């Protein structure tokens, strides 16, 4: 930490600043003190980002999502999203992240890993219980504070449902458990887990080679390819929440007083997971059961709450085992409305002789992921972990092979049927460069360039509205005839041209001046310094457009006429100067 430089603020919001930490991706970072005296990291957003309406909207969304997540396992977030100089306060100054701790000192010892597992299980349970999802969670988002491991929720949480929910991310408990296993694998070995092999593993997965065999087996089970083969967050808390072997962890990494090893701390973790499971049950069970009439939790022998009867069984509905399997395939036909439509079936091999306990197709569940070593017409699916360029089951329909039944399933990209099993898999391709791949007509997306990642976001000035979505093509030809077509973005899938996507996009301008044409009638409101233009019928108009150029601030183009101008930060070619005069 460095002393504050001349001209730097002595206080940001309610936080007095005590030193300078450096420059982060959002702006200058400072060490501050909260009203209660606790240290915090305060980030003052750089002016060029503060003036970008797209960033400002994303900043509001991410702060709101992080604030919705509570509990002792998540770093609290404070921010001013509306100030001309917005700021963010979270974290602990100079506390190491999981990424920096492993990079600096190597893999963590087993007793610290157990503490980490309990804290992360509680944090992930809190996120899902709040109705949120996790996006892009990495070791850098886990902070090893003096009070214990904490999740830095800002920037990695968002709504799981609703109009502003982005596709992908960690939305289910099974996905959360897999990600927890990947983080623990990194913490235990210094490297991320390798992708699952092509075949389906028979029997329990081999343990991760760490000195604590119970911990190693638990990590391996978290990384099971099929969702049904993974343990629950509740089970992990009970299994690893007790004091592990090894005694007291090394000084400076985690304190001697580890509250999450106390009965109260473990109970807090279980409460977070209980809230998650109860919330999922309420959201998915239409029977109207009164959970309030169930017996109260009792204390079990180890000191943890006895939640038997309150939570579902940890055992998944399927069994372990695997095969690489083929089926009949149907894919979308290139419709422009953003929905998938089955294109019929083509021949594929079916393996009716497999035992159900060794068959990932027969036991498939929503959330399972697969790779395809065959073709679109002759698929050869193998179960794998959920990651980029895999296919996630978004619906599993039994008793039918009619691929058109997947047409109404959200984010369905490809359909594979197995006639002898009577199973139809509706699969969603997991695109690896942003969430805009599955954007629908009328939603908004943004990327800083044609080659950057593109994501869905709330519609606001400077973003792009999807006006058409075409599958099976990387051509912009069909976009050119659309009204207000400003940009086209292409999402190619190697070896699968049927999964290629082109989005036809229209810039969200501040008002109707952005797409105005000469001699168009407009309703002028506001002031001449800040005019607002609305396209109306000429009977209701008070100004008429006399010209428009794609150059920014080109008042000479307008001569003696009044003018208004605007430009987006990343797309100067979509700027405009519009000229107008009174009618």
TrEMBL record:
InterPro entries: Kinase-like_dom_sf. It comes from the Bacteria. Residues 320-343 have a biased composition (Low complexity). Gene3D superfamilies: Phosphorylase Kinase, domain 1, Transferase(Phosphotransferase) domain 1. Residues 293-358 are annotated as: Disordered. This is Protein kinase domain-containing protein. It comes from Actinacidiphila epipremni.
């Amino acid at each position: 930490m460095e002393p504050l430089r001349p001209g730097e603020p002595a206080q940001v919001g309610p936080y007095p600043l005590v030193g300078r930490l450096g420059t982060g991706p959002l702006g200058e970072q400072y060490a501050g003190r909260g009203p209660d005296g606790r240290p915090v990291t305060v980030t003052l957003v750089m002016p060029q980002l503060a003036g970008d309406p797209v960033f400002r909207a994303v900043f509001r969304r991410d702060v709101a999502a992080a604030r919705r997540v509570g509990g002792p396992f998540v770093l609290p977030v404070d921010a001013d999203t509306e100030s001309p100089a917005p700021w963010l306060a979270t974290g602990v100054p100079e506390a190491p992240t999981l990424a920096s701790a492993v990079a600096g000192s190597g893999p963590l010892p087993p007793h610290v890993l157990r503490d980490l597992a309990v804290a992360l299980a509680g944090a992930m349970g809190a996120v899902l219980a709040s109705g949120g999802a996790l996006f892009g969670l990495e070791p850098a988002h886990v902070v090893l504070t003096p009070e214990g491991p904490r999740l830095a929720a800002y920037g990695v949480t968002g709504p799981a449902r609703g109009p502003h929910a982005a596709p992908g991310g960690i939305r289910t408990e099974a996905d959360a458990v897999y990600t927890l296993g990947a983080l623990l694998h990194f913490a235990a070995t210094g490297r991320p887990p390798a992708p699952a092999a092509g075949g389906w593993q028979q029997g329990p997965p081999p343990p991760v080679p760490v000195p604590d065999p119970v911990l190693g087996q638990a990590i391996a089970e978290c990384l099971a390819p099929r969702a049904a083969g993974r343990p629950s967050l509740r089970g992990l808390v009970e299994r690893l929440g007790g004091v592990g072997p090894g005694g007291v962890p090394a000084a400076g990494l985690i304190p001697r007083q580890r509250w999450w090893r106390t009965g109260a701390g473990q109970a807090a973790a279980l409460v977070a997971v209980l809230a998650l499971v109860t919330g999922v049950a309420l959201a998915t069970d239409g029977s109207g059961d009164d959970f309030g009439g169930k017996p109260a939790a009792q204390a079990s022998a180890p000191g943890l709450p006895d939640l038997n009867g309150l939570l579902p069984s940890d055992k998944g509905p399927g069994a372990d085992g695997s095969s690489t399997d083929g089926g009949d395939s149907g894919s979308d036909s290139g419709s422009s409305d953003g929905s998938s439509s089955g294109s019929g079936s083509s021949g594929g091999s079916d393996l009716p002789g497999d035992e159900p306990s060794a068959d990932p197709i027969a036991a498939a569940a929503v959330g399972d992921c697969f790779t395809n070593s065959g073709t679109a017409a002759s698929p050869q699916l193998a179960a794998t972990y959920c990651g980029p360029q895999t296919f996630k089951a978004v619906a599993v329909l039994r008793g039918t092979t009619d691929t058109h039944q997947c047409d109404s399933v959200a984010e369905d990209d490809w359909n594979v049927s197995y006639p002898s099993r009577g199973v139809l898999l509706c699969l969603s391709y997991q695109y690896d460069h942003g969430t805009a791949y599955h954007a629908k007509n009328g939603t908004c997306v943004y990327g800083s360039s044609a080659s950057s990642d593109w994501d869905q976001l709330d519609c606001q000035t400077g973003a792009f509205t999807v006006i058409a979505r075409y599958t099976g093509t990387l051509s912009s030809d069909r976009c050119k005839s659309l009204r207000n077509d400003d940009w086209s973005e292409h999402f190619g899938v190697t070896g699968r041209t049927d999964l290629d996507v082109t989005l036809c996009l229209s810039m969200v301008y501040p008002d109707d001046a952005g797409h105005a044409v000469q001699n168009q009638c407009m309703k002028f409101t506001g002031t001449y310094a800040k005019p607002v233009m609305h396209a109306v019928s000429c009977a209701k108009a008070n100004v008429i457009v006399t010209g428009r150029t794609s150059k920014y601030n080109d008042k000479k183009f307008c001569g003696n006429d009044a003018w208004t101008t605007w430009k987006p930060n990343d797309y100067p070619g979509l700027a405009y100067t519009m000229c107008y005069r009174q009618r």
